[in-house]
Write a structure and sequence with these properties.
By secondary structure, the chain is α/β, with parallel strands linked by helices. The protein has a single domain, classed as Rossmann fold (3-Layer(aba) Sandwich). It contains 5 helices and 7 strands, in the order H-E-H-E-H-E-H-E-H-E-E-E. A 7-stranded mixed beta sheet has the order 3-2-1-4-5-7-6, with helices on both faces. Strand 1, helix 2 and strand 2 form a beta-alpha-beta unit.
Length: 183
């Protein structure tokens, strides 16, 4: 795994082999940031990384200067690895939290510009994630929820779907928190 942009560009990271993760590929990360850079100033965003795993996406956001990154994972080994990596790279904007991502969404009251979720592809109820995240008002106005998933999930009929990107077997569905209109 490596960081592909920002202050730590090209920095290789070696996560323990026994972590229950499937890190986002470099190609997918590059595509995500190409899209995000067209819509956001990364140095101004607050990010929530759900199902953070190795912290791969959290490091990428922090390396590029994000204001803050909350990295949530329920696996102690993953959170421990993120903490160690944050200390080594001095990425103090990353705050690792050991908690089930769905419980965090239910209990959290902060808002974010970007929420990235890369749950296990076989996770039950993955289809409910957009409604759960958008329904809890965790996104700031015009914020994005980016969900990495497999082709087994189809969100094409979701009213808040903004874009869908395909990268081999990986799909990114991007949902927008649209400005509320006054009646």
């Amino acid at each position: 795994m490596r960081i592909i942009g920002g202050k730590h560009k090209s920095r290789r990271l070696t996560a323990p082999k026994n972590l229950p993760v499937r890190p986002t590929t470099d190609k997918t990360k590059e595509s995500i940031f190409n899209i995000l850079n067209s819509y956001f100033t990364i140095e101004e965003v607050e990010v929530l990384d759900l199902f953070s795993g190795t912290g791969n996406m959290a490091y990428e956001f922090a390396s590029r200067g994000a204001k803050s990154v909350i990295a949530v994972d329920k696996d102690y080994r993953c959170v421990s690895y993120i903490r160690k990596t944050v200390a080594v790279l001095k990425l103090d904007v990353i705050k690792p939290i050991k908690m089930d991502a769905l419980q965090f969404v239910e209990r959290n009251h902060s808002t974010y510009d970007i929420i990235f979720a890369d749950p296990p592809y076989q996770m039950e109820n993955i289809d409910m994630l957009p409604d759960l995240v958008l329904g809890k008002d965790l996104l700031k106005e015009d914020g994005w929820f980016i969900l990495e998933h497999s082709s087994e999930n189809d969100f094409s009929e979701h009213p808040d779907l903004f874009q869908v990107r395909h990268y081999g077997r990986t799909i990114l569905s991007i949902f927008l928190k649209r400005e509320k209109t006054q009646d």
